[in-house]
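Write out this protein's structure.
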Amino acid sequence: MARAAEIVKRLVIGRALRSEETHAAELPKRLALPIFASDALSSVAYATQEMLLVLTVGGLAYTYLTGWLAGGVVLLMAVVVLSYRQVVRAYPSGGGSYEVVSTNLGPRSGLVVAAALLVDYVMTVAVSVAAGVDNIVSAVPALHDARVGLALGFVVLLAAINLRGVRESGRAFAAPTYLFILGVLVMCAIGLARWAAGDPPVAQSAGYGIRPDPGDADLAGAAVVMLALRAFSSGSSALTGVEAISNGVPAFRPPKSRNAAATLTAMGLIAIVLFSGVTALALISDVHIADDTCRLTGFPGDCENAPQRTVIAQVAAAVFGGDGSFGFYYIQTVTALILILAANTAFNGFPLLASVLARHRYLPRQLYTRGDRLTYSNGIIALATVAGLLLWVYRASVTSLIHLYILGVFTSFTLSQTGMVRHWNRTLRTEADPAARHRIHTARVINGVGAAITGLVLAIVLVTKFLEGAWLAVAAAVLLWLTMRGIRRHYDSTAAELAVTDPRAEYLPPSRIHVVVPVSTLHKPTLRALAYARALKPDTLEAVTASVEPEDVRQLRRQWEEAGIDVPLKVLDSPYREITRAIVGYVRSIGVSSPRDVINVIIPEYVVGHWWEQPLHNQSALRLKSRLLFTPGIMVTSVPWRLSSSAHAAARSPGQAPGSVRRGEPPPSRPRQPSGGPGDTGS
């Protein structure tokens, strides 16, 4: 079983890498762009749609606001990209917003950002995969009922690819990302050229009407403003993933900060062009879409079960001449791919941030260590598990999941830009060079404007989305913040408890050692445990057995005497036939004359080679150890006896011990066949 699992593991993630091969994971800009920017670029596929879905709540009367709101999103994206260029240059260690805020606003504020980002990374995976499945369903409607299974399958596939390593995932995702950029650029160029030539593309849904929701037909005043703000906050999902590059600076090739800043600029320019183009074509082709298909008047087919096509699918069909054209299927294919692969941004950002938090003792230490392929594999698995659970609970619905989204990223934006303003203020106190001071003043203005604008958007998102489901994301972030604080307190209290205060007193050996060997049968494992106990030269040594079956006890005494064993055998009374309770009670009752006396319980155990053998052995030993480990002044020692199956298993798989790759240990040479008896094989 273990051998089969190892073979499957190697097929999925590849050979293990040594620690000194870390440099092989550093990325050139051409691979860093698809890895870290796929989330921000892919949001082009649904950001326009999310704005329209909100605006059409009041029917078609308010879709004229789309262009203005899209302009606001573009301005916001430009400000955020410029602001994060300052972050990657000032804090190149990879902590991103968390490091900026922790350093300048304090650890508690840093934890707020960390909790918000971790929640947002989970939502990135869930929303991106669900949106990708939506586009697959738009091309192949027959797959509508299989959407949840498809989504979960894609999450598993993404996790497997990322477990293979950063460079491997970059190579896998580079082509779809660049093909998406090329396809959307060509679609925008053709569509806008047709519009300029007087032959604008017309969407399939252009002839549909939209019935407003009851009570929303005649909005006015504050209600229109609130509707516009809701649409703007939904369209701001185009900014998700912008911060990922600031968290991944260590993954770039040197000069890291410069390459990260260049990649961030390229990502911002491409995202702005694509988002603007798709939004313009959606307005030109008169795309109509509603949150409920049955609100579309003139919609053919069963509105209860037939899904609407996404905005980008309708634009592609209008530009390229119908839903049977090559261009339509090309756009749908690359859109579905990049939306699904956009989750890769989170698969890189979440484990990196979790490793930083684990290093600072806010998360379990297991999230800090690298796996066989030098990735933070525990973080990848944790992210895939939580995101998969969300997709299952929300039935892979983008509309349901989007309300939980973007809250965390704007929390991060606002606090990090505020932290950067404080960083520049502190730097100005010590900087005397006029040219450097001028650059710092410029950077401070950029970050200040970024903090003000993103803070306003954060307030809008909270007000407009809180009751629609965003409260769940807030609750999750608060719970995570409290959990991380609790983990840090635990680690700090444990470190204080284990700290050496008096080395001479704490390093003194025990004054007396009392050894107890539990036995049930006289066989080779028992004799080995007794021999080991005698080799320790304890002050007292005795074997104990619980009287469960009187005949078994009499036979054990007889064998003990015939073998001439000079270790006294004590029989413990056990009226309720409980071995563990009898032995634990006796060990606790042994009187010690000094607080430095130690009782050592030596337990013989079997080592088996097959998983199905484990439940057949060692159950009494495990129960006994679990009780004794919580008893002060008692040491527990296991003496292994390797059965022949374990020797065969070792011969079949002489691989490295767990974690040996991370420690840089070379693989062991194949052991020679042992010449001793079965008790010595594999030892």
